[in-house]
């Protein structure tokens, strides 16, 4: 079989013939290597081992390295260590429309387990932002392999470095009215059976955590209820905080407002736990339905949120279908389509946007969400934690 007809397989199940494994790649360095890598797969594994303790980073890096390696051997019939600058430009164009889709994209955009024969490296075309992220990660891979003495040069280093543009205004968030529709949908979820009550309670708690805490979906999966703690402020009042391990292994303190703690107690008691967590308690922030206490995966959490958005969108469509005014009906349908396109990260953007709209000091929004900065000048600013807690509690509410 011609090498270009090989089917894409996950990195951990990949076996490459000698002419494609990179041992004789034209970009291999001749000097002494700093890693024990005989071929391209070994080199990628060495690169990934650096981030093995961060699940989210590891999976993101593996995905991009895996996609490029598979494209090189399947589409071009050449090893990764023979790729040229021109090849990488062609790869970036490929990311915008991976073809043939049957070979590269999972059917229906669905995610399949890595050992499932239906697994594919893509779920469809990548957005411009995702393309840029992919190339940034691959540039880091090539640079590291050069530093490790595995490659002679980085084919991406020849790319034109564009000046960074000002970040566009955030548009992927739910305006207040649409956010109210989501909450109304959750409030209306059936609660006749114990399992339905558990699903309702979990949906309500997950949205509360993502919105009031401004957490990323990955942060919900890796942090635990034992990360909540109380301390007294200067006036002697007890305040609760959530110590979040976040992006880039950075920690931040998120104000656990009275409203957030009430929802936590509500969720815990529904699951048969004490109202407040014990220090260092290992219970995941969000639990599976049933008796299991294993943390939910990022994909599972995404699925829950997308299901909530889809249900709320359907309610909007049903209401629009009953609307006598064509303009109002069209508006309801458009809002439903927007909601259906939303993801869990929209709730984080919504939290930040709503806090800013509610006149929460932008320095406090920055600290609550764990952003590096608002702008260059914010590097010189520091917000008082107790005041941040008071202002967040007063101005950022979910109001179930």
What does this molecule look like?
The chain is mainly α and 400 residues long. Strands 1-2-3 form a 3-stranded antiparallel beta sheet. The N terminus is likely disordered. Keywords: Cell cycle, Cell division, Chromosome partition, Cytoplasm, DNA integration, DNA recombination, DNA-binding. InterPro entries: CB, DNA_brk_join_enz, Integrase-like_cat_sf, Integrase_catalytic, Integrase_recombinase_N, Tyrosine_recombinase_XerCD. This is Site-specific recombinase XerD.
Secondary structure layout:
Layout: H1 40-49, H2 55-76, H3 85-96, H4 101-104, H5 128-147, H6 176-187, H7 194-212, H8 217-222, E1 228-232, E2 238-245, E3 251-256, H9 258-270, H10 298-321, H11 326-341, H12 344-357, H13 362-369, H14 385-395
Antiparallel strand pairs: 1-2, 2-3
Rg computed from alpha carbons, rounded to a whole number of angstroms: 24 Å
Integer count of domains? 2
CATH architectural grouping of the largest domain: Orthogonal Bundle
What's the CATH first level of the largest domain?
Mainly Alpha
Q: Helix proportion of residues, in percent?
A: 40-55%
Output mean pLDDT. 85
- Structural class call reads mainly alpha
Query: How far apart are the termini?
Result: 61 Å
What is the third-level CATH name, the topology of the largest domain? hpI Integrase, Chain A
- Strand and helix order: HHHHHHHHEEEHHHHHH
The fourth-level CATH homologous superfamily of the largest domain is Intergrase catalytic core
The 3D shape can be described as: globular
Task: Give the strand line-up of the largest sheet.
Answer: 1-2-3
Q: How many β-strands, per DSSP?
A: 3
Strand content: under 5%
Total helical segments = 14
Model regions low in confidence, pLDDT < 50 over at least 5 residues: 1-5, 373-383
Largest sheet: 3 strands, antiparallel
Domain Tyr recombinase: 169-394
Protein name: Site-specific recombinase XerD
Keywords: Cell cycle, Cell division, Chromosome partition, Cytoplasm, DNA integration, DNA recombination, DNA-binding
Domain Core-binding (CB): 38-146
């Amino acid at each position: 079989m011609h090498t270009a007809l090989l089917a894409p397989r996950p990195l951990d199940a990949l076996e490459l013939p000698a002419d494609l494994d990179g041992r004789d790649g034209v970009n291999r360095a001749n000097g002494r290597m700093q890693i024990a890598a005989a071929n391209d797969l070994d080199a990628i594994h060495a690169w990934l081992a650096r981030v093995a303790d961060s699940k989210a980073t590891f999976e993101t890096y593996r995905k991009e390295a895996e996609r490029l390696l598979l494209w090189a051997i399947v589409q071009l019939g050449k090893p990764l260590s023979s790729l040229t600058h021109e090849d990488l430009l062609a790869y970036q164009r490929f990311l915008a429309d991976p073809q043939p889709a049957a070979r590269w994209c999972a059917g229906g955009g669905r995610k399949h387990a890595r050992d499932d024969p239906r697994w594919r490296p893509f779920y469809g075309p990548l957005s411009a932002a995702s393309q840029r992220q992919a190339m940034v990660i691959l540039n880091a891979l090539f640079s590291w392999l050069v530093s490790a003495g595995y490659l002679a040069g980085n084919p991406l280093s020849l790319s034109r470095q564009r000046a960074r543009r000002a970040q566009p205004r955030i548009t992927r968030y739910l305006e207040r009215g649409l956010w109210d529709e989501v909450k109304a949908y959750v409030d209306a979820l059936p609660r006749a059976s114990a399992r339905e009550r558990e699903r309702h309670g979990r949906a309500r708690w997950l949205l509360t955590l993502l919105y009031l805490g401004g957490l990323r979906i990955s942060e919900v999966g890796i942090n635990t209820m034992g990360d909540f703690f109380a301390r007294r402020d200067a006036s002697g009042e007890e305040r609760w905080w959530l110590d979040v391990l976040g992006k880039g292994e950075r920690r931040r303190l998120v104000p656990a407002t009275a409203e957030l703690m009430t929802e936590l107690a509500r969720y815990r008691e529904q699951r048969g736990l004490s109202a407040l967590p014990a220090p260092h308690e290992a219970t995941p922030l969000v639990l599976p339905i049933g008796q299991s206490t294993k943390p939910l995966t990022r994909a599972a959490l995404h699925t829950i949120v997308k299901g909530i958005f889809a249900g709320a969108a359907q309610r909007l469509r049903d209401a629009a279908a009953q609307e006598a005014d064509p303009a109002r009906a069209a508006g309801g349908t458009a809002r439903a389509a927007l909601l259906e396109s939303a993801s869990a990260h929209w709730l984080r953007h919504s939290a930040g946007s709503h806090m800013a709209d509610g006149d929460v000091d932008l320095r406090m929004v920055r600290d609550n969400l764990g952003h590096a900065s608002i702008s260059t000048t914010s590097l010189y600013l520091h917000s008082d934690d107790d005041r941040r807690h008071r202002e967040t509690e007063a101005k950022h509410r979910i109001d179930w």
